[in-house]
Design goal:
alpha+beta; 6-stranded antiparallel β-sheet; 4-stranded mixed β-sheet; 10 helices; 26% helix
């Protein structure tokens, strides 16, 4: 868009001139005052900084311009979300509802549960070591009912539920656990300081100042659209909607800052007899416009709106697509805006660092941004199975840090204890927390009081 900037000045004698052709140092022949900055003929501020030397009473004798000019960078970034009725998210919610139910009765349980949903069938499988008993089939049916599947292609009462659960491998347990059991086999004492990671792996946490939640704007808008889609269905604000649905948002960035909404995509499952044209108008008015305006954005003349691009969306949920736990890990985190270690959250107790480590990484990253130490921050943690201490801690503030990333890494190791047992203890992760955030994202949830979203002031 622009290649050079010019500083327009005026001397005491009334003569005007311009300093241009890139960046550098220029002496001014006569004392001068700045009139304005011209960028290719337009009045605006320069991209970089102007450092003024030898100024007295507004009179400038010598100036230096640093990084003034250069092309403005424009880019598009897209994130998606899905509703609670999406089959993959149904599976996540069932798995996490089982984790919650077991932890409520035995907080030291080891749980790794996967759920598969397809046409008329729900299969629950995995490894559980616990002194508690929970009716997994009943839990699954309850989640399916809460979501709203009562006959529109899937039914909470008549669909089959099968379970196949075994105990956690003793090979894993001997490296992870540090506890004493009583005669009945129940854990009575545990050493959290020496609790080993439940598996090897790497996980990332991220935060930025694009939104009040300190999350990237595309994923926050995508989540809010899906939440609102679910809300208008349940409250019957828009009649004829069914539980399955998706959203996708493309944000236009200029110089790494959100500038406008480029594209909004909504897929909404609906009854066969609904008037699609009316539904589309209601979705735009009651969902898209409301969500965008709540973040200070609007549909402009260039914004593209797509609703049910195939024409209709009647067959959905497990009737239309098989759902499986852990297939929406990008939706669960940062919408692709930050890196992901590959491990899913749902169905796992917090001794699994896929879950607790990722929560801790978000906790640290958010605290860094909230403390004003960086505008954006990505944290990577890595663990070995059975070892308490993280193998590595990586920080990248993308050049926005107030101190170097190396200094910041040293600082956080003094503030945060990132051993799995200490993360569990500090964040209180052994309680029923997980089903509530198994849809619409685990991070940036201003509607929930999640412990990893609390901010630690880092000085």
């Amino acid at each position: 868009m622009l290649s050079h900037s010019a500083l327009i000045y005026q001397s005491y004698e009334g003569r005007s001139g311009a300093l241009c052709e890139g960046s550098g140092n220029w002496p001014i022949e006569r004392p001068a005052t700045i009139i304005h900055i011209r960028v290719n003929g337009a009045k605006s501020k320069p991209d970089g900084k102007i450092i003024i030397y030898h100024a007295f009473l507004g009179v400038i004798f010598f100036i230096q311009i640093i990084n003034c000019g250069g092309k403005m960078e424009k880019r598009l970034f897209t994130s998606e979300s899905v509703t609670e009725g999406h089959p993959d998210k149904m599976a996540d919610q069932i798995s996490d509802a089982i984790v919650d139910a077991i932890l409520e009765k035995d907080e030291k349980s080891r749980v790794a549960v996967e759920t598969l949903l397809t046409n008329g069938v729900c299969l629950i499988a995995g490894e559980v070591t616990t002194s508690a008993y929970v009716d997994m089939a009943k839990i699954a049916r309850g989640v399916i009912e809460d979501i709203g599947y009562d006959g529109c292609g899937f039914h909470h009462e008549v669909s089959g539920v099968m379970t196949s659960i075994k105990e956690q491998s003793s090979d894993i347990a001997q490296g992870v656990d540090s506890f004493k059991k009583n005669e009945s086999g129940k854990i009575v004492k545990e050493d959290l300081e020496h609790l080993g990671a439940g598996d090897q792996g790497l996980m990332f946490g991220y935060a930025c100042n694009e939104t009040p939640e300190l999350m990237p704007l595309p994923i926050i808008l995508a989540h809010k659209l899906c939440q609102r889609l679910s809300e208008v269905r349940k409250k019957k604000i828009i009649k004829g909607l069914r539980p399955d649905g998706k959203s996708q948002v493309t944000v236009e960035y200029i110089d790494d800052k959100p500038a406008r909404i480029d594209t909004v995509l909504i897929a909404a499952q609906h009854d066969p007899d609904i008037k699609v044209s009316t539904m589309k108008k209601e979705i735009e008015k009651n969902i898209i416009e409301q969500v965008l305006s709540s973040y200070g954005y609007k549909i402009d003349s260039r914004t593209k709106i797509y609703i049910n691009t195939t024409g209709k969306f009647v067959i959905g949920g497990p009737e239309g697509d098989t759902g499986l736990t852990g297939r929406k890990i990008i939706v669960d985190t940062y919408g692709g805006y930050a890196r992901h270690g590959g491990g899913a959250f749902s169905g796992k107790d917090p001794s699994k660092v896929d879950r607790s480590g990722a929560y801790a990484a978000r906790w640290v990253a958010k605290s860094i941004v909230a403390s004003g130490l960086a505008e954006k921050c990505e944290i990577q943690l890595a663990y070995a199975i059975g070892k308490p201490e993280p193998l590595s801690i990586y920080i990248d503030t993308y050049g926005t840090g107030k101190i170097s990333d190396e200094e910041l890494a040293k600082k956080i190791t003094k503030v945060f204890d990132l051993r799995p047992g200490m993360i569990i203890k500090e964040l209180g992760l052994r309680r029923p927390l997980y089903r509530q955030c198994a849809a619409y994202g685990y991070f940036g949830r201003d509607d929930l009081k999640l412990p990893w979203e609390k901010v630690v002031n880092i000085k």
